[in-house]
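Weekly modeling sync, notes
Attendees: AB, CL, MP (scribe)

Item 1: holo prediction request
CL wants a bound-state model with fe (ii) ion before deciding which constructs to order. AB pointed out that an apo prediction alone won't tell us much about the pocket. Agreed to run with the ligand included and paste results into these notes for async review.

Input as submitted:
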Amino acid sequence: MYASYKQTEMAKAGEDYIFKQLFEKETSTYTYLLADKKTKEAVLIDPVHETAERDVKVVKELGLSLKYALNTHMHADHITGTGELKKLVPSVKSVISEASGARADVKVKDGDTLQFGKFKLDCRLTPGHTAGCMTYVWHQKGMVFTGDALLIRACGRTDFQQGSSESLYESVHKKIFTLPDETLVFPGHDYKGFTVSTVGEEKKHNPRLTKTLPEFKTLMKNLNLPYPKKIDASLPANMVDGLCNLELNEKTV
Ligand SMILES: N[C@@H](CCC(=O)N[C@@H](CSS)C(=O)NCC(=O)O)C(=O)O
Ligand SMILES: [Fe+2]
């Protein structure tokens, strides 16, 4: 059984593509399904362990062929769904940045591209929340998947996983805010009910990233957020592509 979830209203089936924004309620995580309608090739961005079965069900119902399961970073608050997805659909290749230091089938670097059907995602390294955060840009559809680097009217915390407020500020300003203003911003989480923003809106209204760098650094230093509840289980599992410790122990006895 998987945790409770809801699928948001954000589902689009354009002329030549499929886009779905899926939600995992316990950790307020967004998973995105993108596909080429003609070739049926699909990718999932930031799947969650508990909702991997749901994601596979959607993929199958739509007659899609899942090529990649991408992580924007090594998550601290939940176990990635990539390990579970690979069990359910063995041909899927998991993806994470080389800079994350984590295990995956494909390790991407800044400037790499990932192809599905006639579409491609541009990989932009955006460190700061973690040292290995990757933002994926779908230029052809004017969409950017920012993980926890840029959240709607917020941004990822910088107090663990080699976080750095200075790096995050530079990443967002140089690698995300340089995209066209109308680019749709899809984050890795939302804790307030937002589903989508735009680069133009965030440049104007993000209460953290509109500050000067010194102000931003002070603000981030004083966020005082509690550690994510599942951090102790998530980090070791996400280092090894989402295989949980329990399974690893079972294999070694
Ligand atoms: N309470 C949640 C964790 C909330 C949290 O720390 N979120 C992270 C992204 S997940 S690594 C974050 O960067 N938040 C920024 C913010 O301003 O909220 C839990 O226990 O799971
Ligand atoms: Fe995170």
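Recorded for review: Residues 73, 75-76, 129, 148, 156 surround fe (ii) ion (ligand 2) (CB under 6 Å).
Action items: CL to compare against the apo run; MP to circulate these notes.
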